Amino acid sequence: MKKILILHNRYLKYGGEDSVLENESKLLKKKYIVDQLIFENKDINSASFIWKGIYNTDSSQLLENKILSFKPDVIHLHNFFYQMSPAVFIIAKKHQVPLMITIHNYRLLCPSALLTKASSPCQLCITQAIPLSGIKHACFKNSRLKTAHLSLILGLHHLNQTFIKGISKFIFLTPFAKRIFQSSHMNIADDQSIVKPNFIEDFGYSEYSKRKNYFLFIGRLSKEKGIPTLLKSLESSNQKVEIIGDGPLKEKVIEASKKYPHLKFHGFQNKDFVSEKLKKCKALIFPSEWYEGLPMTILEAFSTGTPVICGNIDNVKDIVSDGINGLHFQWGNSDDLSQTLNQAELNEEYYLNARKTYLSKYTPEANLQQFESIINELTC
What we know:
Pfam families: Glycos_transf_1. Residues 209-355 form the Glycosyl transferase family domain. This is Glycosyl transferase. This protein has helices at residues 16-28, 49-52, 57-70, 87-94, 132-136, 144-159, 162-166, 175-182, 227-233, 250-259, 271-280, 296-303, 316-319, 334-343, 348-361, 364-379; strands spanning 3-9, 33-39, 74-77, 99-103, 116-117, 120-121, 169-172, 193-195, 215-218, 241-244, 263-267, 283-286, 308-311, 326-329. By secondary structure, it is of the alpha/beta class. It has 2 domains: 3-199 and 363-379, Rossmann fold, CATH 3.40.50; 208-361, Glycogen Phosphorylase B (Rossmann fold, 3-Layer(aba) Sandwich). The strands form 3 sheets. A 6-stranded parallel sheet has the order 2-1-3-4-7-8, sandwiched between helices. A 6-stranded parallel sheet has the order 11-10-9-12-13-14, sandwiched between helices. It has a two-stranded antiparallel ribbon with strand order 5-6. The two termini are 14 Å apart. The relative contact order is 0.11.
């Protein structure tokens, strides 16, 4: 059996990438011998970390020891910021171990990692090896100093071609992400990149006849997730909407739930509660106003056969097919969202198509087949 070494640098808070890593590890163990090397972002605010972020010798030694002891056929990397550092690419290349990286966000091109500026879509930095526009606008943690440090890390390694030379295969979650990176200053070759989405376990299909008359939002309560647009749409819509989530705009949502009798706020809830709500709702509302990566909430909706109503912003509009497994509205436009909710005529075909989308693209079985193809290519 081939050996796969999974590398990941955890964020300060547990997030989506951590969950994806855990699920992928379980999946890969069905076909391969799998080991992990996980780094934690501790002491990253110390003065010494100014240089460790560029090349961390401690991390490189840990990785080198792991390669020598485990002898992996392939390395699968998720996040390398900051403790791991770009040393991972240099060490993997030194030992001639092919490295594939799943690109969960846009950090290699954009200090904010989201392709946003002031919570709005932005692509200023994608043509800049050193993202000077990001420094100007303090895009990382609202600090020019912190953005400059991150830009230094990115710039030095871009100019040295550390990423292009050290990565055997870029795995993008969507065609949009692949297009962005290929049109960027990195100019990634087509044979060095592939689209492979994440997967989720099956939530279980819920039939059209079991649906109730309410729309559902699940997610972070923030501006970039479209919460202000959703709340404003309620002024001219009498459709029932339920919201599950937490975030900086929580108080705004609570205020709106008192103002509008057709809005119900549940706060943060566990997976079982979310699953049941998805299986009963008329459709998922996804009003996000940034490009996103591959929203797991949409995959969960498709798993249950739930259509998705989303803004027609790039990337998201490619995941949800207008008139097939969901509906589009003009992103950021509360009037158009309100009109879409009021006029939504979702027949049974929408629900069946949503389920078909999940079964064809986002199951564990489909994902494992894609992994096998990539690993075979890298080790042939």
